[in-house]
Amino acid sequence: MPSWVDVMVPTQEQHHDKRAFLTALFDWTWDLGDENTGYYAIGSSNGAPVIGLGIGEGTNGNTTTYFASSDVDGDVKKAMDRGASVMMPATEVMDLGTMAILIDPAGAPYGLWRAGTFAGFGLMHEANAPGWFDHVSPDPQRDGEFYSALSGHTLTALDGDMRILQNGDDWYASVSYAQEGEQPQWKPIYVVDSLERIRETVPRHGGSIVIEEMPVPGSAICVFSEPVNGTLMTVMRGGEHPA
Predict the structure, then answer these.
(1) Which structural domain range is residue 21 located in?
(2) Is residue 242 one of the residues assigned to a domain?
(3) DSSP letter assigned to residue 59
(4) Over residues 170-179, mean pLDDT
(5) What confidence tens digit (pLDDT) does each residue in 194-230 have?
(6) Which of 73, 165, 208, 242 makes an SS bond possible with 173, Cβ 3.0 to 4.6 Å?
């Protein structure tokens, strides 16, 4: 299951500005790392971890969704056998856990995380916390089958082109067609108390609204461009979890 999300920016200045923008939207607080941790920061909602923010040369708001793993080396091999490639091999992160980053057959990066002292998300499906994950792909059936095979979870086709990944009765991710010019990627979607508040807040802090409101099963979403890297972000109105 998805267990963590982090974002990487190239400079300390962007790190500061990104934190400020996200705090204005989500009222997050930040635990700032030092030089020994590469200034990696943990964003929390009401004390519960919900996102990581790091600094990396050559990055530009790159966002990675991580999936919980009990055997990172084994899961890397399974992914490679199904057409994935490795961006970062299994790496221990102090006593926090073990990570790897792969590129799936569509070209979308994703991570694996085997928890040590840090489990990942401390809160989900509530306001200012992650609520859904969407993989945009040129071939939703192929890529849905890739993640279904790796996770052992069910791939379900909805009307139209969207596929849903579900763990038992729990719907947790969609695999949908990428728009023209859109790169394959995982998009974490965070829950908010009000889409209207987001539409008012984003422009006030330098971002721009791309989609004001669009209905989705059980909720509605808003898409906007944030001001630091121009990254498109999606939020969903709080309500019933799709499952």
Answers:
(1) 2-115
(2) no
(3) -
(4) 93
(5) 999 999 999 999 999 999 999 988 899 999 999 999 9
(6) 165
| Count: domains in the chain | 2
Q: Is the dihedral of CA 52, 150, 168, 187 positive or negative?
A: positive
- For the sheet with 219-225, list strands across it: 154-157, 163-167, 170-177, 130-137, 185-192, 232-237, 219-225, 208-216
pLDDT tens across 91-147, in order?
999 999 999 999 999 999 999 999 999 999 999 999 999 999 999 999 999 999 999
- Give the DSSP H or E segment for 226: none
Q: Are residues 176 and 211 in the same domain?
A: yes
Please tell me the distance from the alpha carbon of residue 226 to that of residue 233, in angstroms, as a whole number: 7
Q: Are 174 and 136 in contact (CB under 8 A)?
A: no
Q: Is 25 a domain residue?
A: yes
Q: Are 95 and 156 part of one and the same domain?
A: no
Answer left, alpha or beta for residue 47, where phi above 0 means left and psi between -120 and 50 means alpha.
Answer: left
Q: Does residue 125 lie within any of the structural domains?
A: no
- Examine residue 62 and state whether it is found in any structural domain, yes or no: yes
- Give the single-character DSSP code of 217: T
CATH number at residue 233: 3.10.180.10
What's the token pair of residue 112? 């694996």
The pLDDT, as a whole number, for residue 2 is: 98
